[in-house]
UniProtKB/TrEMBL annotation:
This is Spermidine/putrescine ABC transporter substrate-binding protein. Keywords: Periplasm, Signal, Transport. It comes from Pseudomonas oryzihabitans. One of its GO terms (cellular component) is periplasmic space. One of its GO terms (molecular function) is polyamine binding.
Length: 348
């Protein structure tokens, strides 16, 4: 059974760094609801069980890993962070000969996580909305950045500084990886203009469990697959997901092994186990997340292959972009934009 060892707020103050005995479970640092229960049960039949520790912000995750004092065995991470932290010596370099099932990965995705991580799932950033409250389904970033008056105080954004900037950068005709100071300044201006309509910058999956927000959010910035987590706790299952027609962030979440993991061999076995096609298939069938595993993709039902919330139309994908590492000063500028928005909101 999946469970969270610590509340996300405790992650901010650090995870315990005590040694882990060989008989203890593997410690997996991940988004909530990101691994199939069926998969974990299959793994636990002949391997050490997994204990999940949840984060709800990639910035919090990266800060925790950067400290280097948390005892973790596996982490869900994006390519940009994996490369940066790997080059800093905090993640173990992937050795393909130790992971024979990497051969199952679609060539399109195989190298999308760099040298320190392995692709796990992929999807898009987009709009989550309550179909029972919005008369018309949103299909553009304008619906989020310049919301209708009725949505004021009913919008959830995210704290992640890169993801926050996707909508304004695309709306202004820029690339999501832009380091142009003027374009970033104009994007910040759009987000500041939107801010009075924002209820929270807490990730919507977490915000819906907050009594102060639970019945107030009608539109949110989120990720493909989130609608199923939201519907699991919302009567009537009204949540829907759409990738805006202008294009979006094409994200890939990866699995990496921290360099201080006391169970590196077992962690590598889990990554290889995950890439067996019948196991990789479960991420799509049970969690509604796209799989980069070609063997698993061949096993998908026609219904899943034709689901646009899983596999957006090709014209939308053609306008979507992957994140790439930018110059350090751009990284800092983006962080300041995100921090300024959240701090300003919390002070009101």
């Amino acid at each position: 059974m999946r469970y969270c060892l610590f509340l996300c707020s405790l992650v901010l103050t650090g995870l315990p760094a005590s040694p882990v005995a060989a008989a203890e479970p593997l410690r997996l640092y991940t988004w909530e609801g990101y691994f199939s229960d069926t998969l974990l049960q299959h793994w636990a039949k002949s391997h050490p069980p997994l204990q999940e520790i949840h984060f709800d912000s990639s910035d919090v995750r990266d800060a925790t890993l950067a400290r280097g004092d948390a005892t973790l065995d596996l982490v869900v991470i994006n390519e940009v962070s994996a490369t940066r932290l790997g080059q800093d010596g905090l993640l173990t370099r992937i050795e393909p000969h130790r992971l024979p099932h990497l051969a199952e990965l679609d060539p399109r995705w195989r190298h999308s996580c760099g040298d320190y991580a392995v692709p796990y799932v992929w999807g898009t950033l987009g709009l989550l909305y309550r179909s029972d409250r919005l008369a018309k389904a949103p299909d553009s970033w304008q619906s989020l950045l310049q919301p209708a008056p009725a949505l004021r105080g009913h919008i959830a954004m995210v704290e992640d500084h890169d993801d926050l900037l996707v909508a304004p950068l695309i709306t202004l005709g820029g690339a999501i990886n832009s380091s142009d100071p003027d374009l970033l300044r104009r994007s910040f201006a759009l987000l500041k203009a939107q801010a009075p309509a924002v209820l929270t910058y807490q990730y919507v999956v977490s915000a819906l469990r907050n009594p102060a927000y639970s019945d107030l959010i009608d539109l949110a910035l989120g990720y493909s697959g989130d609608q199923h987590l939201l519907n699991a706790t919302t009567p009537g299952q009204p949540w829907r997901f759409v990738t805006p027609r202008e294009g979006s962030l094409l994200w890939v979440d990866c699995l990496a092994v921290p360099s201080n993991s006391p169970h590196q061999a077992a962690a590598e076995r889990f990554i290889d186990f995950l890439n067996e096609p019948h196991n990789a298939l479960l991420a799509t069938e049970e969690l509604h997340l796209g799989t980069p595993n070609a063997g698993a993709a061949r096993l998908l039902s026609a219904e899943l292959r034709q689901d646009p919330s899983l596999f957006p139309p090709e014209d939308v994908l053609a306008h979507s972009q992957l994140f790439r590492e930018g110059p350090p000063d751009t990284f800092q500028t983006r962080q300041r934009i995100g921090s300024a928005l959240v701090s300003r909101h919390e002070s009101q």
